[in-house]
Specification:
Layout (H helix, E strand, L loop, with lengths): L5 H12 L6 H22 L6 H10 L8 H20 L7 H12 L30 H18 L2 H15 L6 H15 L12 H11 L5 H25 L1
Helix pairs in contact: 1-10, 2-3, 2-4, 4-5, 4-8, 5-8, 6-7, 7-8, 7-10, 9-10
Length: about 250
C-alpha cells in the first residue's frame, strides 16, 4: 500500500531549504503550530479523545475540557513540555540515553512521577500478540546498544529511513511502563529534525496502517514501516512547504 518516497522527499527538502533561514517570528509560529498538531495526533493514536481544538485550549490556556478524563489533559500538557525539549535537542547531532529518559520524564511526570523517566521493572505482555519485548534485566544493555548504534545508522541510512528505524528499534525495546509510542514518535521527529527535515505528523485516521506496519518490524521486516513513514514525511513536507510559502 505504501511506497518508498525518498526521491520525492529529497526534492521537497531542497525546495524547503531554499526558503531557509526563516525569520524568528515565523519559526516561533511554526513551533507552536506543530506542538499542538503533534501533541494531538500522538495522543489520539493512543486513545486520548481530546480533539485538536481541545488540545490547543488545554496547552495554551491551561483549561480543562468538561467530560474528559484528567489523564487526557495531563498527557497533553506533558507532551507539550516534551515537545519544547525536542526543539532544544534538535540543535544537536544525536541524542543520548539521558535525553530519552528526560523526554519520557517530561511527558509522564504529571501522570506518574514515580515511573517517569525510569525503565520498567515488569515484563510487558500484550494479550493475543506474539510480540516479545526485552525483560527488565535486559533494558539497560538494550538501550545502551540502541544509542551506540545511532551514529552508524545515521551515516548509512537515508534520513527518513534512519528516523523510521530509530522509532522501530525503540518501540520494540519498550523500555518504559507507559508512553513508549509517544516517546518513539518524539525520537523519530528528533532524528528528522537533526537531519534537517521538519516535524512529521501521523494522522490518527491511518492508525491501523501505522500499527500494522510497526508490528512487522518486530519480525525484522522494516520495509513496510519505512515506506509508511516515508509517505507520512512526504505529506508533512508538502504541508510545511505550503505554510512557509504563505510567509514568503
Amino acid at each position: 500500500m505504501y511506497k518508498n518516497c525518498f526521491e520525492q522527499n529529497d526534492e521537497l527538502k531542497k525546495q524547503i531549504d531554499g526558503f531557509r533561514p526563516l525569520p524568528q517570528d515565523i519559526l516561533t509560529q511554526l513551533k507552536e503550530y506543530y506542538k499542538i498538531g503533534l501533541t494531538y495526533s500522538s495522543n489520539a493514536i493512543e486513545g486520548n479523545t481530546l480533539d485538536l481544538a481541545e488540545t490547543k485550549v488545554v496547552i495554551e490556556d491551561g483549561l480543562t475540557i468538561s467530560g474528559k478524563p484528567l489523564k487526557y489533559h495531563l498527557e497533553a500538557l506533558g507532551h507539550a513540555n516534551a515537545f519544547d525539549e525536542l526543539i532544544n535537542l534538535a540543535k544537536q547531532d544525536f541524542f543520548t540515553e539521558n535525553d530519552i529518559k528526560n523526554l519520557h520524564h517530561l511527558f509522564y511526570s504529571k501522570i506518574n512521577e514515580q515511573n517517569a523517566g525510569k525503565y520498567r521493572n515488569t515484563q510487558v505482555i500484550i494479550t493475543g500478540s506474539d510480540v516479545e519485548f526485552p525483560a527488565p534485566a535486559e533494558l539497560d544493555g538494550k538501550m545502551r546498544e540502541f544509542v551506540s548504534k545511532l551514529p552508524q545508522l545515521k551515516k548509512t541510512l537515508h534520513p527518513v529511513e534512519y528516523a523510521a528505524t530509530v522509532h522501530a528499534i525503540f518501540v520494540n525495546i519498550h523500555p518504559f511502563i507507559d508512553g513508549n509510542g509517544r516517546v518513539a514518535r518524539l525520537l523519530m521527529n528528533l532524528a528528522l529534525l537533526q537531519s534537517g527535515y521538519n516535524i512529521v505528523i501521523i494522522p490518527p485516521a491511518v492508525r491501523s496502517d501505522y500499527i500494522r506496519a510497526l508490528q512487522e518490524t518486530n519480525r525484522q521486516n522494516f520495509e513496510p514501516f519505512v515506506n509508511f513513514i516515508s509517505e507520512m514525511t512526504l505529506e508533512s513536507q508538502k504541508e510545511y512547504l505550503k505554510i512557509i510559502k504563505r510567509f514568503a
